Amino acid sequence: MFKKTVILITTAALWSAGVSARTFSPEAATAARQQIETLLQDKKATVGVACSIDGDDFALNDTVRYPLMSVFKLHVAVAALQRMEAEGTRLDEALTIDSTQMHRDTYSPLLGLYPSGNFRISYTDLLHYALALSDNNACDILIDYAGGIGAIKHCIDRAGITGYDLAETEASMHADIPACYRNWAHPSSVVQLLQKILDGSLLNEEHTRFMRTTLVETSTGLNKIRAGLPPEIVLGHKTGSSGQLPDGLTIADNDASFFCLPDGRLCFLVVLVKDSRESETTNAALIARIARIVYDTATANQLSR
Fold first, then answer.
1. How far is the C-alpha of 71 from the C-alpha of 67, rounded, in Å?
2. Looking at residues 278-298, what average pLDDT do you find?
3. With CB atoms 3.0 to 4.6 Å apart as the test, which of 46, 127, 196, 221 could cross-link to 274 if both were Cys?
4. Residue 20: pLDDT above 70?
5. Residue 172: enclosing H or E segment and its boundaries?
């Protein structure tokens, strides 16, 4: 179904540790925090930030429980891929999807292709739809395959990830809007997960490479972290948004990312927005601006070495 785009990311570029130096010295961290707090001071939203560069960490408002929305598809994909590894299932193998698995009143590009259900799709493409296109039906099919949302949580717990909880599927959140708050994480928890996905400690080499490439191919949320970075910077990310409710509340607007700095260091940056009364455009612009503050802090440190 998909002709996979060739992504020119070398392993050396992704894993280069660069020259050891503190990105977030006390002075740099204070300056970045002040810039972000100034940006947020008149905004009707709670915003959390976590960043890690070569083990040097920065966080703001990291003790709040932020609804994950579609960012939890990262957790789902890891659990599904681990089950595939346990069963010896290949990415190019196909599974059959029946009509009962294709919910109609939800965001699902797959539904546009297969409105009546009853089709076969490879695990590669199903995961691509769930991650790169944020397809809700694809996500819930993967949850079922992995053994249910409880099995997803058990998998992530076993990986040593803390500061999060998972209790809901896409369908259950759609049926009960307050349920969106029951899939939550601190920003630093999502950084932990991204680090473990990319360092190969959760998945085999093929699946680690697949996750990295698929997240770089993600086409959602290009007005968020992507918009705050120079265009030449290679970015992989997973977004999540509740959309704006009729009363003007946005439960969550999120972006969880990794990207290569010009000197080869790998930066993990997660920005989670909760209970915003701002417009979706403003939420995205806040995320983009925070990304730029982090990038400028990191590259200023690079230039000063």
1. 9
2. 97
3. 46
4. no
5. helix 170-175
What global pTM score does this model have?
0.92
- In the chain the beta strands, taken as DSSP E runs, fall at 46-53, 56-60, 66-67, 94-97, 119-122, 164-165, 184-185, 235-241, 250-260, 266-276
Q: What is the mean pLDDT of the chain?
A: 92
Can you read off the two tokens belonging to residue 46?
A: 């709670």
Residue 28: predicted pLDDT? 86
Rounded Cα gap, residues 138 and 130, in angstroms: 5
Given 16, 25, 52, 70, the catalytic residue = 70
The single-letter code of the amino acid at 218 is T
Give the list of residues 6+ apart from residue 134 with CB closer than 8 angstroms, or none: 70, 73, 107, 220, 238, 239, 240
Side-chain-facing half-sphere of 38: CA atoms under 13 Å: 8
Question: What's the CA gap between 52 and 272, in Å, rounded?
Answer: 15
Tokens matching residue 39: 């940006």
Q: How confident is the model at residue 60 (pLDDT cuts 50, 70, 90)?
A: very high
Right CATH for 11-304 from 2.30.110.10, 3.20.20.70, 3.40.710.10, 3.30.200.20: 3.40.710.10
Cα-Cα-Cα-Cα torsion 41, 42, 43, 47, nearest 10 degrees, comes to 10
pLDDT score recorded for residue 301: 59
**pLDDT, tens digit (0-9, with 9 covering 90-100), for 220-236:** 999 999 999 999 999 99
Known active-site residue 172: no
Backbone angles phi, psi at 153, to 5 degrees: -60, -40
Contact between residue 45 and residue 249 where contact means Cβ atoms under 8 Å apart: no
Residue with the two structure tokens 């191919």: 217
Strands 184-185 and 66-67, by their bridges, are antiparallel
Mean of pLDDT values over 10-28: 57
* Residue 303 pLDDT > 90: no
Q: In what order do the strands lie in the sheet with 266-276?
A: 56-60, 46-53, 266-276, 250-260, 235-241
